Fold:
Amino acid sequence: MATGTEEHAAEGGGLAIHPMDQFIVKPLFGDGPVHWYTVTNVTLWMAIAVVALLGMFVLATRHRGIIPSRLQSVAEMLYGFIHKMVEDVTGHEGLKYFPYIMTLFMFIFLSNFLGLLPMAFTTTSHIAVTAVMAMAVFLTVTLVGLYRNGIGFLGIFWVTAAPLVLRPILALIEVISYFVRPVSHSIRLAGNMMAGHAVMKVFAGFAGVLGAGAVLPIVAITAVYALEMLVSFIQAYVFAILTCVYLRDALHSPHH
Amino acid sequence: MATESTAAETAGHAASSVCVNEHGGAIGMPQLCGEWFPNQMFWLVVTLVVMYLILSRIALPRIAAVLAERKGTIMNDLAAAEELKQKAAAAERAYNEALVNARTEAAKIVAAAKADIQKDLGVAMAQADVEISAMAARSEKSIAEIRAGALEAVETVARDTAAEVVAALGGAADAKSVMAAVAARMKG
Structure:
């Protein structure tokens, strides 16, 4: 929904840009209230992401080619990229969590890029979506850490490398930072996606007002669009690698 | 949660919400609209479960198998290439050996042939020498014969001529004295 402000500008007259309208959740069929089960634009764009995933990872790899087709090599590249990242960051025993991290990465990656299509709805720009994922990661990491290391998992808060006097203060800071993790984890992604899309919408509004002479806004949109493509990939990568980093804490507690 | 707003319906936008104004525009940040949270969370969980099943059941094992198979194929190919390389090196070595052998063999044959030729040549030369010396001897003999014949003829001619010359001068030459005189002249 990066473009398409023209009708707002026309009906409002002057600079009537509504950069936040693209984030509205609305039912696909009818105008009823949005219940938890209602089929909305959220459902539609998540379903498109699932279809894209099926196309990339199931349809493209169906020949199991030793010499891959183009799309198959993209799937293999993403597989290799995340697989190597999980192995490098969490070590060999972290590899059993690879499918979970791959799921998160692919969901964010596909949602971010699909959201860049004109008129698209960006599911990952919503804090409700990213917070659920961040909380899932937080709970998983905490439970895995407690299960594997028992009470020793709390050792990550007790910095043995620091002088004894400083350790209680550091422990307090560590505890706070530990519980802030899901907040920063989710807001980083949602904020990035929302800001980029809103900026594009604002420039699109300028272009709509200026009409045919809107060279500068269009150049700006092009530049922001390129930047947003970079951000879309980087944010998916950052979310996945932070998940790996948190998981490493749970798998390799300092006292064990 | 749902509030009725007919104005929004006329605007053709999502209605019945505290997060949307009468024109269907957003009020504040739609991200913070609590009444949409359950919907997003529900569909997110559904999507993540579906994606997880697709990836863990079908896609990831398949890609892992393909990558392993490719790795195996490449390893096999490399091993085969190494083997072929060694074979090529062995073949080259054998070729060089054969070449060296052939050279020595050829040198041997050349030497043998030379010796043979030398021998034949020696025999032929000896034979030719014998023939030449025989022919030379024969020639010498015939030359000697001819020379002897010539001397005799000269003596006869001289005697006859001397007798004729004496007779022409009016003397009577007896054969004995003419012969003696000629013999004396021929010696002198």
